[in-house]
Design goal:
four-stranded antiparallel β-sheet, alpha+beta, elongated, 342 residues
């Protein structure tokens, strides 16, 4: 099934291409791809060239996704897998609250029990195609918000927001050890570059010393990574922190907090589980992608999302005094901003 975007010309003038670039944020390549599609670009319901002039009152329709572009390699998930809660959905986007223990994409032994397989089944049951385009991803053991674009232009525009720091995510994590509780305006910054651990292909490591010539030695160069965190509840053994990222490196939060001396509770890679306190029922890395803010790629409306806390976070959230509505992910824009200050 093709996907279209329809826009109304108000006061704009110029060519159809100029209008689509300015109003919808489409690139020349995306417009070129559309114009070679059957009925790819329409003006007032009639196929047109991208060079045609527009006038106020015109209706411009552009094809964003061709037929048969879905992720046909995906297969349905096991029948006992429950589709995660959908936090937001429209014709261009879908965001879900991923449970811990489920990978985002198929790999290795996980070929049908992933979030992508679940979404493929979800859309297939509704007679829709789905091409898996996640905007960022979460580790298997991390719970929380995962955002997907339903068409290529939306994915491109959201990725651009992510690169420019306009797509914002906040995480909730329980870490080992005591950290002083901060005021709502106090944020700490960890800015160690990260790179693959040469001793363990599954891990990343931070670079705390001056870099040397990695290209000359044949090693992978480190990538810059910046994490901000704020503590809002502490015990002598563990603390609850809010985190936001400037970069999105593999295992960034996990490796940065471990480098600070406060690894995430339950983390099998970066924490010493022999001596790490694991309160209540934490049996996985204590990290939840809690909140997300971005601009809709085509309407430019600001979207605020909040993912209800999973069961293993509930006890410590209550202990920390998080309001029940915040725990449940019930939030509007004002509530999102208030919750971000907790």
């Amino acid at each position: 099934m093709k996907q279209y975007l329809t826009l109304s010309v108000s006061t704009e003038t110029g060519s159809v291409e100029h209008f689509l670039r300015a109003k919808a944020g489409l690139t020349r390549r995306q417009i070129s791809r559309a114009k070679f599609s059957e009925n790819g670009i329409l003006k007032n319901g009639i196929r047109c060239r991208s060079t045609e002039e527009i006038s106020p009152g015109d209706i411009i329709t552009v094809c964003l996704e061709e037929e048969n572009t879905g992720s046909s390699h995906l297969i349905p998930p096991p029948s006992d897998m429950i589709m995660p809660a959908v936090l937001y959905e429209d014709s261009d986007l879908i965001a879900v609250n991923k449970p811990a223990g489920i990978p985002v994409h198929p790999s290795g032994k996980h070929y049908n029990d992933t979030l992508s397989n679940q979404l493929f089944s979800y859309f297939s049951q509704n007679g829709q195609q789905f091409c898996c385009r996640s905007i960022g991803r979460l580790d298997k053991e991390t719970s929380g918000i995962v955002l997907f674009a339903k068409n290529r232009p939306a994915a491109s525009l959201l990725q651009k927001q992510r690169n420019e720091g306009k797509l914002l995510k906040q995480y909730l994590a329980a870490v080992s050890g005591y950290l002083p509780v901060d005021t709502e305006k106090s944020w700490h910054t960890i800015s160690f570059p990260v790179m693959p651990d040469p001793c363990n292909p599954l891990k990343m490591q931070v670079l705390k010393t001056a870099a040397y010539d990695f290209h000359a030695t044949g090693k992978v160069s480190p990538k810059s990574a910046v994490t901000h965190y704020r503590t809002f509840y502490s015990t002598p053994d563990w603390s609850l922190v809010l985190l936001r990222l400037e970069t999105g490196r593999t295992h960034q939060i996990r490796v940065h907090m471990a480098a600070s001396g406060h690894p995430l509770l339950g983390d099998p890679l970066y924490g010493d589980n022999r001596n790490m306190p694991v309160p209540h029922n934490f049996q996985r890395t204590a990290l939840h992608a809690w909140k997300m803010e971005f601009f809709h790629p085509f309407t430019q409306k600001r979207v605020f999302l909040s993912a209800a806390l999973p069961d293993d976070f509930t006890d410590i959230a209550k202990k920390a005094g998080l309001p029940q509505d915040v725990q449940n992910g019930e939030t509007d824009a004002a509530e999102w901003q208030r919750a971000a200050k907790l």
